[in-house]
User: Fold these one by one.
Assistant:
Number 1:
Amino acid sequence: MDVGITGYGAYIPRYRIKVEDICKVWGANPESVKSGLNVAEKAVPAQDEDTATISVMAARNALLRAEIDPQDIGAVYVGSESHPYAVKPTATIVAEAVSATPCLMAADFEFACKAGTAAIQVCMGLVGSGMVKYGLAIGADTAQGAPGDPLEYTAAGGGAAYLIGKKNLLAEINDTYSYTTDTPDFWRREGASYPSHGGRFTGGPAYFVHIESATRGLLEKTGTKIKDYAHVVFHQPNGKFPLKAAKDLGVTKEQIETGLVVTKIGNTYSGCSLLGLSRVLDKARPGEKLLVTSFGSGAGGDSFSLTVTDRIKKARDKAEMTDDYINAKEYIGYSTYIKHRRKLKRS
Amino acid sequence: MRKVAIVGVGMTKFGEQWATSFRKLIVEAGISAMRDAGITGKDIQAIYGGNMSAGRFINQEHIASLIADNTGLSPVPCVRVESACASGGVALRQGYLDVASGMHDCIVVGGVEKMTDVTTDIATEVLATAADQEWEAFYGMTFPALYALIAKRYMHRFGATEEHLAAVAVKNHANGANNPNAQFQFKVTTEQVLKSTMVADPLKLLDCSPLTDGAAAVILASEEKAKELTDTPVWIKGSGHATDSLSLHDRRKICTLDATVHAAKQAFKQASMKTKDIDFVEVHDCFSIAEICAIEDLGFYEKGKGAQATLDGETKIDGKISVNASGGLKAKGHPVGATGVAQAVEVTLQLKQMAGKRQVKGAQTGMAHNVGGSGGTALVHIMGLDK
């Protein structure tokens, strides 16, 4: 399969709230929480932002890098756990906004934090089989954390878009491998404002089993070893889990650090591993191999092996870099945060 | 009353056993004990099962039937025994009385708890059911809070510090590092204990035993049956069981668990022994302060002197009196219903010189001390190689 990434784009909202400011509200020890999670602050969407607006911004950046006619986009898929509507796809809003309509397929995806990578896999199939010329896969979220719940420290907003094609690739996707089981570690019922989770059950049997099994499966399938990869990106629910998974798999600090964005922007859920990858693509060198493994609760891991091409150097300067978004920030306090996140009962 | 011996022991690994169910845990421990004793199911005449709260942890009552059914031992009688964290110890005592009375000649005593199928918050609430619901839990008391009150009072009366408490955790982790069945098999430093997250002042995370899944089982036999099965029976020389007020505030003295004092007296009297005859003891260190009070209430140290003795290293594995060579509840783990039986497993292994790297040298007589709640129930058993 000679498919890959023709364009990629990130978007992260500008507002930030510090973990210590959330701690103060709930009477938690800031030093204990910050060091326990290895997260300092998280990105907060503005009042007029949602998964649709984030997806559109990321898609626009991806198309700036791809330099294609948007009418050649044959499919748009948006993966999220915070689609604005339960019924009415985000994907059509994005498709219209980037002028890809009307001759295309579209749908929304959900698989907790790995809905975006699932969308990439489907686009790989559509492009690889020749059914479409280009497929646009997006992972974006404005994640919800219940007030006072530990998830509140890390649930953030952001997303990234990947235009999958056969031509003008800035990175080849050499292969993909998924590991999927019915593991109910984290879930949100229809109509519920906030997700529920199984506490410590979300660690060992959920995150670690699926990240490590998917990664090992990919290595076996491709006949590669961890040391073959210049950069490794794992899903990042906090700044500790990916470092432990790295240790378990023999990934070094140098391999994991470029893609570790959670410490500065929190967990952007479906955007998470895709934003880690966009930061890596902003900095990677032609010829380097990249390994990305996402994790979605419920549960599954999608692992990808990529090779950066020569085109990366020219293409990446055509849109905002991930760090441009990470560093363009404005701090807000808890009261503004809950206003933005619509946690105030207004009627 | 007849003499009773432990002729086989078994336990599962203690820890967060995500993939192992309640029934699988108890079956695993039971089979392990039967293999150790060299017996099969048809030798077992009765079952005693200690379990604190399967009803709230896994929505399952009628544990007696579940155990008999899943172990394949039906139709033998099975009794589920509950006394909070002393469920295992009471099961051991009831099993001992069963064989001592002549009712049966060969029985199995097990203990099991599956605590990780609920969140930490719910587990804390469930454990709090061991306290007085009307006068303690209703007002917000949790177990760490109750033992924190004991710790505060002890520190005030006897000048102990958080370093004294930390010494218990440091010792028990060092011991647990040599226990392949322990939940935590790593050492901790005093600094790590002192810096760990505060749970209920002055008790920090590393002063508290963890939430654990696990099961343990022992085979008890009459003298005649024991002779058939083994050359090294471990005799139950003394068994003591006592109760005290359910709530901490009704105790005679906050820092003294009278139930422990009475149970110890009974066990020593029955065994015709004194503290100097005990080579090692497994005590109920649900929290670091609990171990300090235990070694005093059992009679090894005067009230108020246990803290310094611990800090001075007297209770290390090679110290004056080895306390919690297994790693204790702190490092081995505390699946509440199983703990009392797991202590008997450890004492037996030590006496049979099978404790590997954590072997207490010259172990001839050992003691197990199991407490329910903040001291409402206490069990003391003395085991030895001599009949």
Number 2:
Amino acid sequence: MEIDGDRLLPGHVFAFLRESIPKIWLFWCSVPIPFKILIILVSISACVNIIASLSKSIVSNSSSWKKAPDSELMLSFVSGSGQYQRRRIYRDAHAYLFDRKSSKYSFAWLSYWLGNYENPSKVITFLLSLVYLVLAIVGIIEMAIRCFFGSLVYFIVNLSYFVFLLITWVVFQIIIPIFYIADKKTLKTQYCPKCYSAFLLAKFSCPYCGKIHSKLHPGKNGLLYAKCICGGKLPCASITKRKYLKSYCPNCDNILAGPNINSLTIQVIGGNSSGKTAFIAAFQHQYIGVNNKAGFRSVSFFPEYSFKELERIYSSGKTEKSPTDEVRAYFIIHGNKGSSDDGLVFYDVPDEIIISDQYAKNPLNFAYCDGIVIIVDPLSLLSVKSECEAATGLESTIGFSSDSAEDIIVHFINKYSEVAGRVAKKMSDTPVAVLISKTDLITINKQIGKEAIQACFSEKANEYYGYEDARDKICRQYLLNIGLINVINNLESVFSMVSYFPVSSIGHSEDGNPFDPKNVISPINWLARQCHSNIRDYTAFVEEKVNVFN
Amino acid sequence: MYSIRSTSKTTIALIILAICIALLMYWCSAVPSIFSYYVLSLILSKEHFGKFHSFLVSASFWLLLLASANEAVFGEKRGFRVIKSFDIPIFISAWVAIWGFIAMNTQVNITWFWLCYYLCLLVGLTLSLRRQSRIKGAGPARSSVSTPRILLALSPPSRNGFDVSIIDRIVLYGFKMAMLVDWLTLFVYLIVFFVQNRLSI
């Protein structure tokens, strides 16, 4: 074979092979048959063990994943775990390849096993040693073939696999931002009911080991699913139903009702014992009851213990004084098929938080409310209270608010302006529903009860745009008549949308019978319509069903 | 308990020794020389004295070789120490070589040669038999003061009472019996040979 200068060209290699192959074949034909069989067996054994070593290392490393830095999640296969597995497979495959004890189906293992065999008879060990020596020579030849060709094969396979992973990594890096942006677009701004911080993506806990993960979104940990360090598979995108995992506030680790709720947030404001908690108890009972009967998509509530407390209040017919140092949040959630759920959130704000300046936390929830419910207790006015007592007795006026409605409204507007950053002379678009409570009392019911409003509307239909307008104006006039003109003026000077409603949360005096609420749905329905919230369909349906029943 | 790996060292030494002997014999037959011619002539002269004589001589020498190998295996000899187990057959082979050297320069009486060869074999067998008897597990099964020594040696190996495997003891016993029979045959045939060939001595 001639070589061109100092270079070995591929053509020279092929020419060399063409000349050598017939000689090799002639030599092979001259080899005695027993040796031929032995060589073939050894070669087959070596090939089988090359494949077996690789397969064994692949199987043993198939569950090896690389942990992402600063995270309790594993890197996805394409982002890093694939290369990690490839390195380990390559290393372990070599270890198995060079270890004669790794496979029982080889001459090398057989000679090793025979070498360790012990017998009390020297004659038998001597005779077996003759077999052992033959096997040892065959085993050495087999190991030589195995190690040489195995290393070559592994190198080629490893290189090909590396290139494949590299290409997929590049493609993955292009796809990640697309998925990330698409997922981010499905997120709604959420607010923690405890620390009031705003965030888009909550923390999620692994349902298998309970570890909390803060960056569970499409990325290097996975596009649709991520792997926790416990091995559990977690959805990490909206389309893979990440919302069903338990979620926590990323700021204070408070457990949340849901990670992505399209919520209608309502602040319930009022003086002490004005009926805020009773209103929420009455509303939730009617609202959840009608939705469940109608068989709507799953309605859930959070926290469960708070709603159990509300139901207990509803059933017992007796209200209790709420804690004065915490704002309680009540979540009613409609589960949707999409990436976000619809929800109603009530914040029961104690009057102490509004009146006192001693609380460390500002009521930051004011900053992100969609609607405000202000409960005015007419019994807070002495004249109204005396009139009711004269008509129905002292028992009917037990549990009245001692706070002045005007003071509450003024303090609320000041706090609201401070937290929401409202500029003076600029009106707020947040709708406000003013609820006149305890309209079950005869003296109040005669003036702003359902029948009274209906009668007035029927009589002077041309003065009103509709029943709702009549209800609003009649209730407003009632407040004027009982001397709460400042309440009206203060509210209407700050808020552009104010409506007035007659409400009776309990429906009767606190006599131990369950609540019989009147008109608790319509204020919320009105708020939902003003905010164009998805909840308006549900509230409208519930109000219609409740009115039919009544 | 003996492992095959440790025993294989003795096996390797025996195989190397056998290969060396085979190479030596091949060299002797391939490289023509007067010395090897005379040695070969001496050895082939056994045919003149009959088939039984030829067979007995060959069988006795091979028995000595096997006994030496047996001693090497049971003594766990390795490396050059294996040669020590083969000192008797090596000595006999050297003795034949000396006779060959003598035959190069003088007229050798074949009958004297074979007579001495028989004596050498007898001595060699005696020494080899003693060595076999000293191997652990080759001793008599029962020890008794009143029992004659020869009867003790002829008694079959016991299955119990020793830490040597019964197979080893059977093999050692077999060798001892074979060597004993061979010794007796050699002794008898030595007398017959002497009587038959007294005129040519």
